[in-house]
Structures are given as C-alpha cells and as structure tokens.
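Handoff note, outgoing to incoming analyst
You'll be picking up this chain. Sequence as last confirmed:
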Amino acid sequence: MIRRTSVTFVIALALALGGAAAPAAAQTVAGTWQLDVTLDAGNGRATFVLLVEGNVITGTYGGVLGEQAVTGTIEGNTAKFGFDSPDAGKVQFEGNAMEGTCEYGALGAGSFTGTRAP
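Most recent structure output, in case you need it:
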C-alpha cells in the first residue's frame, strides 16, 4: 500500500501592485510555470499550468510524479495549490519567478527555482 499525502505550494503574492484588489493580483499566478528542482536524489524539472477563476485555482502538474490535477484557492494575497502525491513544498512568488523548498517523499528534500513560460 502506498501512502499518499497532499502536496501544497503556498505563494505570497508579493507584487508591486499598490492597493490593487487581491483577485487582480491573484490573476498573475495564472500561466505555465517551469520549475528546476534540486533534490537529495538528483535534479529534475516540473511544469505547472495554472488557471485562475475568481479565487479558485485549477490546472495540471507534470514531472517525475507523472501528470497530476492541481487545485487550490486564493485568499487575500496568498495562493495555495497542490495535488495528491507523496511530497510537499513551499513557494515564494514574485512577478515571473518562483523559488522555494519541496519534499518529494522517498526522493528526498530539496529546493527549486522557476520561471513563467513565455
């Protein structure tokens, strides 16, 4: 039996948008993101395609764990999204760049950097 846990990425929307409303800021997380991941077990690449409607995030993850459906929400200036898999992570997001830490179960802990695809 494989134990599965929820993978959650948390993004603080730290954008220079002045007094813009959170939903407008949240829209900036939508898009295709390519992440370079460095783990104890080696390096890899993951792709997130994120869609935002209101405060709901949907999309897909593609990487070493195959393809997974992504779901999440936006509350205030924080976006939380993830998928069901044996790993977890935390993300810092600004503009077209992401960085953070992750836990890929048996593959080990690590960090990643990522950019929004053109």
